[in-house]
Every structure is written in C-alpha cells, then in structure tokens.
Fold this sequence. Notes:
Blueprint: H1 11-21, H2 36-87, E1 98-102, E2 107-111, E3 117-122, H3 132-135
Amino acid sequence: MDKFLGQDIPEQERWQFLQDNADAVEKIGYTHRFTPEELAQKKETLAEVSITINDVELEKKEAMESFKERLKPLNEEKQELLDHIKRGSEFVENEECAKFLYHKEKMVGFYNKLGELVYSRPIMPQEMQKTVFSINRKTGTES
C-alpha cells in the first residue's frame, strides 16, 4: 500500500482521478497531519487569540471592579435592612432623650422626641433625692 497516490497528477484533477479509480467513496473521519506552514499559521492564530483573550480579561476585570464599587453600598444597605427586619427594630445612637425619675416605682424612664419610652432602668442611689420640679410633675397620664 502506497503512502501517496496520484502525486504526478495536478492537485485540481487529483480528486477526480482518485474517485474514478477507487472501489468506493465513503465518508470517514481521520487525523490530518499539518504541514509546517499550517502549523506556523495555527501558532500565529493562537498568539493573536491569546492577546485578544488577555485584553478581554483585563476589560472584564476593570468592569467587575466598577460593578463591585457600585454594589458595595447597596449590599451594605441591604444587610442593614435585613438586620432591621430580622430584629424588628434599629439602634438609634446619640439622640437626645428626656429622663424622668419615677420615685414611687424606683425606676428611671427615657423618652424620645415622640414621647415614646425607649429605655428604662432601676433608679440609682444618687438619683433618689427629689427635686422641686419632680414633686409636682405631670406626665400627661394623670386624670
């Protein structure tokens, strides 16, 4: 069995010659060996594709950093909202509240600007002494 057939026939006519002299023509798969020129072309194409991929990866990285920056405050806000929903409340820092001493109950109450009791605790010994103002105080709950 020869490695090559019809090498003396021009390339344009070779396939017709092979078909005419074959026992049959069938479609099959096979491994095609590249010529040195084809291999060099493949390597050149690989270099071009690699450069393009690198450029796209850099562009993607820059875009991802931009998206991360845009998402960061939104994710922080989302986390805060989830935390508030989970607890059903939020902690308010450094808001002025009115402090009321309840000597009968021996308790101290702190009220926000809306008049809501936001914190209460037992009265401390240094707070036990009544003032002139606390004797006749009206809290709005007396009849």
